[in-house]
Amino acid sequence: MAGSSILIVEDDQNLLSALKYNLQKEGYGVATAADGAEAIETARRERPELIVLDVMLPKLSGFDVCRILRKEMTVPILMLTAKNEEVDKIVGLEIGADDYMTKPFSMRELLARIRAMLRRAEMVKPQPAGEQASLKIGELEIDVARHHASCRSSPLDLTPKEFDLLVFLARNKGFVFSREQLLEKVWGCDDACDTRTVDVHIRWLRQKIEDDPAKPKRLVTIRGTGYKLVG
């Protein structure tokens, strides 16, 4: 959304300048950092509403920056990587990134991703009084207001996006959602988003809530349709 503050972390000065120009042209407030250490300092000082974070950075990698900031804030993080390897994408999502893009990318797609992520961040702000603040699905307990979830009374260590996905499915227990629907409802994405993002988050969420992730009984797949959470 225009007017939102965005932090760009990129050591390629040409790309950094291009990103800053295009984001400011769209009406966003922009802060920049050229290395990992500066990124952490700037994020703590500016408290941006979204971070565009390159993986390959001097001093600290984008992965390290993401790990550190994710412990301190729930700001949406879009990671940029020059590698087209699945492992890099999975690592980024696992440590708390909300989405990723592989270089080279079109500026139009980047802007679409940013708009979608900011819409989603706006949607998941604390609900007004009277909204359901806690959910219980079988042995799963979710305290939405405190951003806390547990299974069999044991706390679950969830990334912000894993938590959002779990809350959405819990609020719609028993209903089946396709990957495209989950991208829209949980990520706020349109066709620019990769459906594999959903599969990765489902896989990691199962690692945390299922007794046997290979044979899920809580977060189940409906062949040819999508996913649903059952009690």
Features:
231 residues, alpha/beta, Rossmann fold, Arc Repressor Mutant, subunit A, 2 domains, five-stranded parallel sheet, four-stranded antiparallel sheet, 8 helices, globular
Explain what you see.
By secondary structure, the chain is α/β, with parallel strands linked by helices. Helix content is 41%, strand content 20%. It is built from eight helices and eleven strands. The strands form three sheets. Strands 2-1-3-4-5 form a five-stranded parallel beta sheet, with helices on both faces. Strand 10 (219-222) and strand 11 (226-229) form a beta hairpin. The longest helix is centred in the middle third of the chain and has 17 residues, at 107-123. It starts with a strand and ends with a strand. The model is unreliable at 127-131 (pLDDT under 50).
The description of the largest β-sheet is: 5 strands, parallel
- Low-pLDDT parts are 127-131
Q: What is the number of domains?
A: 2
Question: How many β-strands, per DSSP?
Answer: 11
Q: Give the CATH class of the largest domain.
A: Alpha Beta
> Could you estimate the helical fraction of the residues in percent?
40-55%
The name of the CATH topology of the largest domain is: Rossmann fold
Large-scale geometry: globular
What amount of the residues lies in strands?
15-25%
The CATH superfamily name of the largest domain is Response regulator
